[in-house]
Write a structure and sequence with these properties.
Chain B: One of its GO terms (cellular component) is outer membrane-bounded periplasmic space. The complex is a heterodimer of chains A (328) and B (329). Chain A is mostly helical and 328 residues long. Chain A contains 13 helices and no strands. In chain B, 42% of the residues lie in helices and 19% in strands. In chain B, helix 7 packs parallel to helix 14. Chain B is globular. In chain B, 43% of the residues are buried. Classes of the chains: A mainly alpha (328), B alpha/beta (329).
Chain lengths: 328, 329
């Protein structure tokens, strides 16, 4: 524990830094490292290599860090508060809710302005979470890990069907959201990210602040009450954090599945079950993970690019199966 | 050896005779992109499951169409379904014709198809998952879209639809127009292989390039213009590439499309380029010298001689008959 406390932060931060540099140094176009460096200290808009670094790779790396950290922290909080090892925004309907809300808002109400997107996604994520929780709570046995996962799958399928229905009613809306719905960091706009930045920041800061109480709650409600935790208040704060982080992530990159599932488990393997460490480590490892995934998405079939969401699903699905076999 | 050849010939003759006997009278064996199927010699009730690929050419050639898939796109055609491509080129609608709407192209309505009582169904190669279901309703023919070059595809569609003669007549007329076009190019440019044309678009944060983009690519190829190697070497008709390789598509002319019904007007298409690669219009030769053209996608993309003729006229007017700044300069 104490070793992790001292060695961990520089290792994680160093890892993120290395992956960040790797992310912006490699791609479909080979660019000398000196040119990569020059694009930062002597940027020339007429030099295409500089444009590639500054306008294509750099924003994408920033999106990867923000979204990876946020989805991972959201997953960690959900797993801690619900004591459900399978809890994460994708499996519990938040990603589907946020995606549905964004598609509906753009398709029916023309709310395509970047400032609206995170708010709309937040409403959708909240709606998805409430639907899943309500269904799971009403089945015999209540909201167990299994019933939550099953109702999450049902709500995700239902909202997916509604998205398909909207597509059939008006295909032009879907055309412009087709790639976004697969979950991608490519071609996302900086203006949307800037609108989401306060959401990311607030969600992460509050998550770090409540991590100690989440540790208490993860030990059981009676223990938490004994330690003076206001459980109802904590759950509301965590729900807000999860919704805010998920909404901002979906607004920037679409629904990226399994990130929030995989990373908190990796963090717990490294630092144990103290959420004062799990939450910040999830943020750091999640950021590094999505940087790595996005490097793979850009390089594996270069010059063809694969949607980042497809890679996260390819990596996350086997991990999910392993978790179900070992933890349920 | 001689005996073997005789045996092979005999076996082949027997084989073809046996195959011919597999089809009932009034039917013929048709080889398509999902195997072989007995279809009517002259289909009387054809259902098309792709507007711009099948409905448009069959309608143009006068085939016996009774049903077509159709899209719904905002206020286009007053918000009613329309057969893509055929509506745009010929003004064909379901309400003003005897054509029955049989569902969305990506989600066809099997009951509506059966209700149209077809004797032939045409589907694209990405819908083979419903081939067996459709084959119960009527003989079904699969046409590869991106895997077949335009004219090869067009000929297959005409052949299946029983309008091959009409197709050949129209092709002969178009080839005459093409020959005239080549003379225009020779007169104004000289060696057309020295002029490069890239068909490329920015869409939803991705760079799309096209080796085969219906009438547009056919006309460009037939006039002898060349495409950049990164596009010419594509295995498929199109590909989504990393915008980092943008300079590799640099060419004398660049052509893209717009589509009003899809909410992609020209200004939006140009803005998508700005979003994809800021400064693209300074990086690439064609936009830098006002040699970047945008065409109406639907009137160009539908498989039809009307689309080919329109596109030929546009390409000649914009590339062959005016001064331009060559890339090599």
């Amino acid at each position: 524990m104490s070793r992790a406390l001292y060695l961990g932060p520089p290792v994680v931060i160093g890892g993120i830094l290395l992956l960040f540099l790797w992310h912006i140094a490699v791609g479909a176009k080979a660019i000398p490292l000196l040119t990569v460096a020059q694009s930062f200290w002597a940027f020339d808009q007429t030099e295409f290599d500089h444009v590639v670094i500054r306008n294509l790779r750099l924003p994408r790396a920033i999106f990867a860090i923000s979204v990876g950290a946020s989805l991972s922290v959201a997953g960690a909080l959900m797993q801690g508060v619900t004591r459900n090892p399978l809890a994460e925004p994708g499996l519990l309907g938040l990603l589907a809710g946020a995606s549905f809300a964004v598609v509906a808002a753009i398709g029916f109400f023309g709310l395509a302005a970047p400032g609206w997107i995170p708010a709309v996604a937040a409403l959708g994520a909240l709606g998805g979470a409430v639907m899943v929780w309500t269904i799971a709570a009403r089945v015999p046995g209540g909201a167990t890990p299994l019933s939550l996962i099953l109702s999450g799958a049902a709500v995700t399928a239902f909202l997916g069907a509604l998205i398909t229905l909207m597509q059939l009613m008006d295909e032009q809306t879907f055309e412009s959201l087709r790639v976004w719905l697969t979950g991608t960091l490519a071609g996302r706009q900086m203006d949307v990210f800037l609108w989401c930045l306060p959401w990311f920041a607030a969600g992460l800061l509050i998550s770090f602040a409540v991590a100690r109480q989440v540790t208490a709650l993860a030990m059981g409600e009676e223990t938490a009450i004994g330690l003076g935790v206001d459980i109802a208040r904590l759950k509301i704060i965590v729900l807000i954090c999860v919704v805010v982080l998920t909404a901002a992530s979906v607004a920037v990159a679409g629904p990226l599945g399994f990130v929030g599932l995989v990373i908190p488990h990796v963090a717990r393997l490294l630092v144990g079950s103290d959420y004062r460490l799990v939450v910040p480590y999830s943020a750091g490892i999640g950021a590094a993970y999505l940087l790595l995934v996005d490097i793979a998405a850009r390089l594996v079939l270069a010059p063809v690019e694969v949607s980042t969401g497809i890679v996260t699903a390819l990596l996350g699905a086997p991990f999910f199966i392993w978790l179900v076999r070992t933890r349920l | 050896m001689k005996n073997a050849i005789v045996f092979a010939f005999f076996a082949a003759a027997m084989g073809s005779s046996a195959v011919a006997q597999d089809c009932a009278e009034g039917q013929r064996l048709f080889v398509h992109d999902h195997g072989q199927t007995c279809i009517p010699e002259t289909p009387e009730r054809i259902v098309s499951l792709r507007g711009e690929q099948f409905t448009a050419p069959l309608w143009e050639l006068g085939a016996n169409l009774v049903g077509s898939s159709g899209r719904v796109d905002g206020s286009k055609n007053d918000g009613l379904p329309y057969p893509r491509g055929a509506y745009d080129i010929f003004g064909l609608t379901f309400s003003d014709s005897d054509l029955t709407w049989v569902g969305d192209p990506n989600n066809p309505d099997l009951e509506a198809i059966a209700g149209a009582d077809p004797d032939l169904i045409l589907i694209p190669d990405w819908q083979t998952d419903i081939y067996d279901q459709l084959s119960i309703i009527a003989p079904t023919v699969v046409i590869g879209i991106w895997s077949n070059p335009l004219l090869q595809r067009f000929e297959k569609i005409a052949d299946a639809g029983g309008v091959l003669e009409e197709y050949e007549d129209r092709l002969s007329q178009f080839n005459t127009q093409l020959a005239d076009g080549r003379r225009v190019v020779e007169d104004m440019i000289g060696d057309s292989s020295e002029v490069s044309v890239a068909v490329a678009e920015a869409f939803d944060g991705k760079l799309w390039v096209y080796k085969d983009y219906a009438a547009l690519s056919h006309v460009i190829d037939e006039l002898g213009f060349v495409t950049p190697p990164v596009i010419a070497q594509l295995k498929d008709g199109n590909a989504e590439l990393s915008p980092e390789i943008l300079p590799q598509i640099d060419s004398d002319f660049m052509v893209g499309t717009y589509n009003i019904a899809f909410d992609q007007p020209p200004s939006t298409r140009l803005a998508e380029w700005d979003d994809l690669v800021p400064g693209w219009d300074e990086i690439l030769h064609a936009p830098r010298h006002n040699q970047h053209l945008l065409l109406d996608r639907e009137t160009m993309r539908g498989v039809s001689f009307r689309a080919l003729e329109n596109t030929l006229a546009i390409v000649l007017a914009n590339i062959a008959t005016r001064d331009f700044v060559p890339l090599n300069n």
